[in-house]
Amino acid sequence: MSAPVLYFADAGEAADLAAFLGRLLHYDKAAAVRLQAQAGGQALAVFGRPPSFEVLAVRTARLLKPYENGIDDALDITVSAGELLDSVDDGTSSAAVPAAVTGPPWAGVLPPRGGWERVDGFPDATALRGLVKVAVGEFRSRVEELAPDARTRAALDGIGRDIWSREIAGSGVPVRIAHAAASLGFLRGDAVDLLAAGSWVRLRTLYGSVALRLGSAPGLGGLAVTPA
Asked: Contact at 8 Å (CB) between 55 and 49?
């Protein structure tokens, strides 16, 4: 049986997905992604986890139809990000779905599909970009202060944990969620929302989302939530 083929709505959708996969592979050459599309639907959800950020990245792509081999079946499969990128055909705005791989642990624990509420009072996109810029500058400065032989992986990881685990504006949401969004090319433009569902939060922009499970409770400080 031939591999299912995903047909994207246009060449731009295929190019955007390829760019996202390329960024994931930049952080992890062996990256895997989980693909989901509802039967007969016109949207593909691609989940990935760049290891440097400890978050889930979510990119959606508009489809003409989920499958070449029929649209009556839902798609839910974990595949190699590199093989999926290699299969993206800009000329036909399509991609063949690679063979399934053994999924990493994160692929079995995805954010909920529904129940999201908008968090009021969260900083806007301009403020988040500024916050990330300052944090990156602090990281580089602190690394440069170390003697060359002290710049071990453990030391760099320790500095990173200190900076990226800080709360954004007392919200309970760590800076790493904004850093990941910026590094993956999501934190562009002006539209950005923070959504919450149970123990999950999701930073959503027009270009993708970054989701993080905070624990047994949302921990959103004094910020209020409203139906999304």
From this structure: yes
